[in-house]
Amino acid sequence: VRLSDLVEKPVYDQAGRSLGQIHDARLIQDGPVLSSGMASFRLHGVIAGNMAFGTRLGFDRGDVRGPFLFKWLFRFLGRNAVYITWGQIASIEGGRIVVVEPSGGFPKVRDMLGGSEATVTA
Amino acid sequence: MGVGRELWAALSLLDRQLVDMDGILAGKVDDLELDHPADPDGLPIVTSILSGPGVLSHRMSPRVVGRLIDSWRRRRHPEYSGPARISFGVVKEIGINVELTVPRSDLCVSRLEDRVRDRIIGRIPGSRRGAG
Fold first, then answer.
1. CA–CA min distance A117, chain B (Å)
2. Tens digit of pLDDT for each residue in A89-98?
3. What average pLDDT does the structure give for chain A?
4. Other CB atoms within 10 Å distance of the CB of residue B25
5. What are the pLDDT digits (tens) for A34-71?
6. How many angstroms separate the CA atoms of B102 and B100, rounded?
7. Measured between CA atoms, how close is A122 to chain B, in angstroms?
8. Which residues on B lie below 8 Å from A40 (Cβ)?
9. pTM here?
10. Does B71 lie at the interface with A, CB-CB under 8 angstroms?
């Protein structure tokens, strides 16, 4: 699979409800060791939502701090963006991604990533 | 790069400049290739960086433009073996640029540039003279 098979592709739950598009993918360097002696990156999850611009600039994550007005605006516009773990992706077919929604719904990105990336759990 | 580092692929990797071991620019990160592990519950592992014009067209419109360009290229150049595939094992550092531990000549990222040099620029009278 390529990253481009995921990013900017529409996401639906199993009932056919649209969750927007995938905007970014979260990689963590915790995989098998590569020839360089470094651990490889593994794909843990993705961000999906309707407003892409602020996400592509990183305004919904803790490491982009300002300007305040932009951060507030983009976080407001992207308030419905959700974090989907790799295990919740049921299929990737024909440019369409189907996910399995947990009983309590997907966690909102702004709740998980607004302060620090370290608070995210896979 | 320390173990356990976290990054966002589109924000921190896509479209970043590749820099070889000698500090020479070696293309851009146009896409990433991930392999599924044998374990069905395992997470995909980033194995390669893809770089080159064919990859970018795939990103922009995989269904139409990317496939058209790929099929045209394969008909016209049967030796074409797909985009430049750079193993993630040669990545030294990910920052503003993506630094590599190998020279640009080992990466096959400049095939288009080489063809233009050999077939067009090289045929212009005087082009074989070295600059300076």
1. 8
2. 999 887 889 9
3. 81
4. 12
5. 877 889 999 999 999 886 666 667 666 656 666 777 77
6. 6
7. 11
8. 45-47, 88
9. 0.76
10. no
